[in-house]
Design a protein that fits this description.
By secondary structure, this protein is mainly alpha-helical. It has helices at about 1-10, 15-30, 35-55, 65-90, 110-125, 150-169, and strands at about 100-105, 125-135, 140-145. Helix 2 (about 15-30) crosses helix 3, helix 4 runs antiparallel to helix 6 and helix 5 packs across helix 6.
């Protein structure tokens, strides 16, 4: 009986981060913190992750919160710097971009880690992950301005994939 209750409880709160995000999102959209909205946020935060759990799979336990925070800081910094770089490129009448296709070999095995790696690349202005090729174990990235694709791939692996491997594997 205790095992069934533990499993049942785990299923209802299997994605605590998603539950918190749904609840916070509801309260943000309502722009009011009153008992009715808080209760609705709690209910939605519990029910929505449970309903979509078949689509998103089991929750992932974070192995290193410090690595998550460090990676988050790196991603935010890179997004800011990339915005500045792309703006300079777009506003400079003399600068001509050198677009390139950058194959980035994948060492990470975890499917959520691969998806997050591709998402981080796409969120960073000036780069788009176009294909995640599972057979070749690589992500094909289009870079708006890249004079050295090998160095760009090495940089993406070091800045994003290495921390993701620490988190997921």
């Amino acid at each position: 009986m205790a095992t069934t209750e533990a499993v049942h409880g785990k299923r209802w709160f299997g994605h605590p981060i998603m539950s918190a995000m749904v609840a916070a999102g509801w309260l943000t959209l309502q722009q009011a913190i009153d008992p009715g909205n808080v209760l609705t946020a709690i209910v939605l935060g519990l029910v929505i992750p449970r309903v979509v759990s078949g689509f998103i799979g089991p929750g992932v336990s974070l192995k290193s919160v410090g690595t998550v925070l460090r990676l988050s800081g790196i991603v935010v910094w890179d997004i800011i710097m990339s915005n500045i770089t792309v703006a300079k490129l777009a506003l400079s009448p003399t600068r001509v971009p050198q677009p390139a296709w950058v194959p980035v070999p994948l060492d990470i095995q975890h499917p959520n880690g691969v998806a997050l790696f591709a998402s981080i690349i796409t969120m960073t202005p000036g780069t788009v992950s176009c294909i995640v090729d599972e057979h070749r174990r690589e992500i094909l990235v289009h870079a708006l301005d890249c004079d050295d694709p090998v160095a760009a791939a090495r940089d993406m692996k070091a800045r994003y994939e290495a921390p993701l491997r620490e988190i997921f594997e």
